[in-house]
Amino acid sequence: MLRWVLGSLLALLVLLCATVTGGWFWVQHKDFATLASAKLSRLTHRDVHIGHLHIHPGQWMTIDGEDLRVANIPGGSRTDMITAGSVHARLRLMSLLHGPIETSDVTVDHFAGLFERTPDRVPNWRFVPFEDLKRPRPAKTTEEKPDLHSFPGVRNLTVKNSDVTYRSAKGASYQVTMTQVTIQSSDDASPVKMSFQGGYNGTAINLDATMQPLSVLRRAPEPYGAKAHITSGDLTLDFDGTLTDTLNFDGVKGEVFLSTPTSAPVFALAGLSGTHPVVPLSLKGTFSHAGDNWDFTHASGALKDSQINDGTFDLEEGGNGKPDVINTDLTFGRVDLNSLTKAFSSGKSAGPTDIPLVAPADPDPVLHVKLAADELLYNALTFSKFRFDASQTPGHINVSTLTLEYLGANLQASGQIDGNGNRSHVNASISLSHGDIDRLRRTAGLAPVPVKGSLSIRIIAKANNVSTLNEATRKADLVAAVSMEKGEIAREIVETASMDLRLLVRHAKGTTPITCMLGVLDMHQGIGTVAPLRLRTDAGIIAAKADVDLNRKWLDLVFASRPFSTSFFALDIPVRVSGRFDNPDLSLARWSKRGRGLLADSNELTSLPPALRAFAASNPCARPTK
Q1: What's the predicted TM-score (pTM) here?
Q2: 421 located within any domain
Q3: Which of 188, 221, 532, 560 has the fewest Cβ atoms within 10 Å of its own Cβ atom?
């Protein structure tokens, strides 16, 4: 009986050994491609094709696959969503039982992945029945957290000759090529090293990164530390921070430093290769990305000759056919717009600096911009304490704030730009205060004037069918009121204007205070009329009218004292000043028909827009003289 039992056990052992041995050889020579293809097709709800799939059992099980293809969804831009030439991997057998799976010597060659939205905005990366895929997916909530507790252990991963492409619903493609990518770690408690050689949209990129161990990654959404050094041409970019959803590059926050002496890689990455200007750029700050928001704060650095003291860039992705929204708040030290404009025009334009005034009908992205600068250079002008705040909507740009100081004067402006194709309609309201007369006239190229004081100016301007700031300045129609309530004028000028006979026997000395001054300007494309122009002093009242041509730098001015306001000895003979700004001629107004015409209108008050009436009415010179 015992012998029978022992014989039976021995026979069973031999049978088991034979079965295992036979199974071993069967598994090694079996092609599992058909079985795996059918199984994956059911799981993914897509047609999956595997050319060959072989498994080699052992303590480290080896898997080799060739010619892998996963079908795209109906309406996709190409037949297959994913293809791979070959896949090789070793898996530790015992890790399949208690996980996480441990892998080694993973090699992927000629992988190509296309992640896209169809024109109907259906995404192809959700592996569900197509009917469910077309249904809107519930918005991701803040409570949803990445689950990486079973993320496999990676000892040595290599991806070669591969690419991943994202294609938007509008057909724009963004491709990452992977010439060779390696990821290595000694064990789950050791740092992870990553090396990337490839490119983005045809621009070469190299990346070297050191990350925390995989044991930390599995504790997501705890922050996962990473340091990266990226180069592309002359561009270097360093990142030192953390991620809470590493696989989706989400929950990112860290310090970034960027430097490039030409900005060529920046323009190439933006799809502008071959058209870029040479613009040195250095930038450092705090970068963050969470969900649809991309943020760069505490930015500082330099853009060519302009110093960035502090700044914020905030991008909110639109999604669902909506445009992206960019909010920018930058504080500069010194900004040279002449240098920047010349650089961005690739040095082709030798003309004056100009700024486009275009309001796109469908802006993408939509911009909200705040700018500040200690000093701003624009053509031959130098401004200080510059502040600018503007927002954009379809076909419209609203400039709520524009303030600056120029020659000691403070300028404030606001306005709107309404677009019509590549042309625009511009409306602006401008206010200038504390404008020193002598400094302003020297800048305008006017001859010296014996008047001292500061001006206040209010302007209502509009320009139709323009595309740039300089064009709008040339074509603008404007109405302006100029006021002065404190100042002084040479007494000799008042007596000369009134033809005071006492000047025959003496020379008037000193100045006399200006009680008020008011001028009203109506101008069309650089040609305008000043009427009235009144100046009141203790020594007399002067009324004037002028025609001005800024294009030719020419004027025709008539002024006369009012008899009731001057002394007994005054003849009150009107005087005409005519000619170029820098060298006008002097004559008696009544000697010419033109002079007599100007004189007749010298006391009229031009009709003012409502926005200027209160400003002009508060000036005592607004009341007509006798």
Answers
A1: 0.73
A2: no
A3: 221
